[in-house]
Write a structure and sequence with these properties.
Number of strands: 12
Order of helices and strands: HHEEEEHEEHEEEEHEEH
Shape: elongated
Distance between the termini: 56 Å
Strand content: 25-35%
Helix content: 25-40%
Largest sheet: 6 strands, mixed
Number of helices: 6
Radius of gyration: 21 Å
Structural class: alpha+beta
Length: 273
């Protein structure tokens, strides 16, 4: 039996043989993360955009800014509306049609992670209190799914937010008329760079930055979002609880990755500006 057939018929045994030697089928050690690449301003028709690649996982984010009335209970705040979608070409698991439940969960978690990290101050989106605010529609599409889509999505969204420039708006409180001056563009203030790192437990071994195959074999998944050196959001799914030592280890790894990604974004933005 060749190796490819053995992997197809006995995926757990295939991975177990590798993990017992503290290595993964793609050559990484258990704690290694895959290379990260970020490109800014990839969608010219959007008000902000970026594409992120983690290993073979690719997510693109486009942001469109529109004007709207604020909520009655939050007259000084605008809106940030992330929406995650899985393209049918990203994986054989997805088909054309309504978004899968996974996409809706990711969209909600993405909004929570950005909010908890105080990445954007929604009051910066206010034009006229109680009358007019900006709404940032953030559309994220997974083009290639090879694990850790949420990790790639949050970096893509944060990177895209760094490229958003909003035109000056003149608003008449009496008549409700608006005027847009596209010759005066102001960059959107971004107050933090939340970065998520995912971990899975496979055969009692902790794996960092899992591939899609490793996610399918995992008994437990744990994601840690870090912003400004502090854990701002986390999520766990699966039946096996992580002990305090493992959680600490995951958090330290996530903090290290947050510093690395933050430097990458800041260096690229410095060159662009």
């Amino acid at each position: 039996m060749d190796l490819k057939t053995f992997k197809l018929l006995h995926p757990v045994k295939y991975y177990k043989d590798y993990l017992e030697n503290n290595i993964r089928p793609d050559g990484r050690e258990l704690e290694d993360i895959r290379p990260l690449a970020i490109s800014f301003g990839v969608i010219k028709s959007a008000d902000g955009s970026a594409i992120v690649k983690i290993g073979n996982t690719t997510v693109v984010c486009g942001i469109k800014a529109e004007l709207a009335a604020p909520k009655a209970l939050e007259p000084l705040k605008g809106f940030l509306v992330p929406n995650v979608d899985f393209s049918p070409v990203c994986s054989p698991s997805y088909r054309p049609g309504p978004p899968p439940d996974e996409a809706q969960v990711y969209s909600r978690s993405l909004a929570d992670a950005i909010s908890n990290a105080h990445c954007i101050d929604l009051q910066d989106l206010c034009i006229s209190p109680g009358k007019l605010v900006w709404v940032l529609f953030c559309d994220l599409v997974c083009l290639d799914h090879d694990g850790c889509v949420f990790d790639a999505a949050i970096v893509a969204l944060v990177a895209a937010l760094h490229t958003v420039k909003l035109p000056a708006i003149q608003y008449n409180d009496d008549t409700g008329e608006t005027g847009t001056d596209t010759s005066r563009l102001s960059p959107l203030p971004v107050h933090g760079v939340p970065v998520t790192t995912s971990f899975v437990m496979v055969n009692d071994r902790l794996l960092t930055d899992p591939t899609a195959e490793e996610e399918k074999l995992a008994s437990t998944t744990f994601t840690v979002t870090v912003s400004d050196g502090k854990m701002s959001f986390f999520n766990q799914s699966g039946g096996d609880p992580f002990d305090s030592v493992t959680v600490k280890k995951c958090t330290e790894s996530a903090m290290k990755r947050e510093r690395s990604v933050k430097r990458i974004i800041q260096n690229i933005m410095h060159k662009i500006n």
